[in-house]
Amino acid sequence: MTVWNLGSINIDHVYRLDHLPRPGETLAATGHDQGLGGKGANQSVAAARAGATVRHLGALGPGADWVIARLQASGVATEGIRILPDSSSGHAIIMVDADAENAIVIHAGANRALDPDWLRGACAGIAAGDTLLIQNETSLQAEAARLAQEAGARVIYSAAPFDLDALREVLPHVSILALNEGEAEQLFAAMPGALPVAQMLITRGAKGAEFRDLRSGESLHQPAFPVTPVDTTGAGDCFAGYFAAALDGGESVAQALRLAAAAAALQVTRSGAGDAMPTRAEVEAFLKDRPDPA
Q1: Is residue 138 a known part of a binding site?
Q2: What is the residue extent of each domain of the chain?
Q3: Where does substrate bind (predicted)?
């Protein structure tokens, strides 16, 4: 099976600060790094390092060859990435404080300049049993979800950044809706009652994660593994990528949750987003002889 990802690709500029700036406040950064980011790229790297066959679909502006090289080095197939000469690459300004909390500003750039005709060709290889990942940082999410659903693929939708209109459009074609705790609260407030989706994944940071089967009413809870965080940027993307890779590889939901929780625990002990995703070997070593946290 293959994990396809119509996903954002950003160049991350990470600034370390003693505290996050207040309105009107100017702060001097204590450090700066540049790296690979974007929810889509992060998830692709995580899924590839988890052992999945991953094909990324997306776009960059000129002069970003190092980004493609870094994706390829992580095992991501990049033939589906277009270079758009009239667009800038997506980028993010990420501020991380002394407690590893973050604030992020993104500019979509080429991520929002995708062409429907290109998408239909790019998605032509999606087959029954494959998995499509999508997020809210590109254009054409609903079109991609529909094409994947028609092909018989599993569609996992990370509804972030949260956008109710985008969610309503995509939801009829989604197999698993993935949100963090804050996004879930916004969704339940805006759409009370039964949701038109079969399954939900809700990540809750240090409180772990919950998987709900909305058809049967059953739910599974995966506690978080306690670690000392360095940088929480990309933790949810790490979880989603590992979770998708595990399901695509035929593992159970419970196995996928445990693997993803361990991967995210490792990822937050490192600086960066896409570049900080752990390998499957590292995650398995972390889990060896480690019981589930209470």
Answers
A1: no
A2: 2-9+38-83+111-287
A3: 10-12, 38-42, 137, 237
270 is in an annotated binding site: yes
Question: Could you give the angle at the alpha carbon of 234 between the alpha carbons of 30 and 186, nearest 5°?
Answer: 110
Catalytic residue list contains 165: no
Residue 40 zone, left/alpha/beta (φ > 0; ψ -120 to 50; rest) = alpha
- 7 annotated ligand-binding residue: no
Q: What span, in angstroms and rounded, lies between the C-alpha atoms of 101 and 235?
A: 12
Question: If residue 117 lies in a helix (H) or strand (E), which one and from where to where?
Answer: helix 116-122
- pLDDT band with cut points at 50, 70 and 90 for residue 100: confident
> What is the average per-residue pLDDT within 63-89?
96
Is 250 annotated for ligand binding?
Answer: no
Q: How many residues does the chain have?
A: 294
3-state DSSP helix/strand/coil % of the chain, to nearest 5: 35, 25, 40
Q: Which one of the listed residues 33, 117, 237, 248 is annotated catalytic?
A: 237
pLDDT digit string, tens, across residues 4-42: 999 999 998 989 999 999 999 999 999 998 888 899 999
Expressed in angstroms, the distance from the first to the final Cα of the chain is 34
Who has greater pLDDT, 100 or 207?
207
- CA distances 247 to 68, 114, 130, 154, 179, Å, are 26, 28, 10, 9, 17
Its pTM surpasses 0.70: yes
